[in-house]
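Q: Sequence in, structure out?
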Amino acid sequence: MTTVDLFHTDLGPEDAPAVLLVHGWGGDGREWSWHAEAFEDDFRVIVPDLRGHGRSPVPEKENTPVEMAHDLAVLVARLGTGPVVAVGHSMGGQVVNLMAVHHPDVVHSVIALDPAHGAPESDLAFIRPNLAAYEKGGAEEAADFIEATLAKTAPHGLRAAHVRTILGTPGHVIAQAYAGMYLDAGAVGIRPYSEQYLRLRSCPSLTVWTSEAMAAWERTTLDVPESRVEHWAATGHYLHEERPKRTSRLIRDWVQSQ
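A: Exactly. Output:
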């Protein structure tokens, strides 16, 4: 496994509790800018761009959540923050949970926002053709998906920002990351595999779902005391940007309770 030296920002007091804010598929760390400014007086705030995304290097292969989790573990260890509260959205939610499983020494607890895990096996009926489309059409196909996801609920400007960001993400990264979430050997995005890996976590976790059914499912996987699952109704997938104040309160309260 080859480590990528990630582009990142590091704000706040060095001796404060450390919070790692991780973006999702086809995004970059800029989507956490509001939250980073809200936290920087009280927490040490690390905001990376995942491998293949944003301003980080772009490998030709291995642009998958497992490798992304490894990169983040190396970054946290190098920065000397101590164990972090690892917060991730969508694919980033899968990545921070993989960190908690494979690199427990650098993760104090996990917050996952509408994470990319727990998909029912029936979803493979569209996940497989989606991957074929991303392998062929790359970022343009992915941008169509993101635009449709944000068309109804997103505040003004959010859709255009995310479409622009994903169009700047290399096509092979889009396809490899998607396959790494759901279809590669060892991928944990589909429900039976999700359940196995979530039960391997030894740290407390907080998951927020915008789907009541997904929240009910994940509550059945909780084995660690202090862990919990919340459901935010009438909220779109990019909940941290649609409701930044509520998200920041959630993260702050969680960190201060640890």
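The chain has one domain: 8-256.
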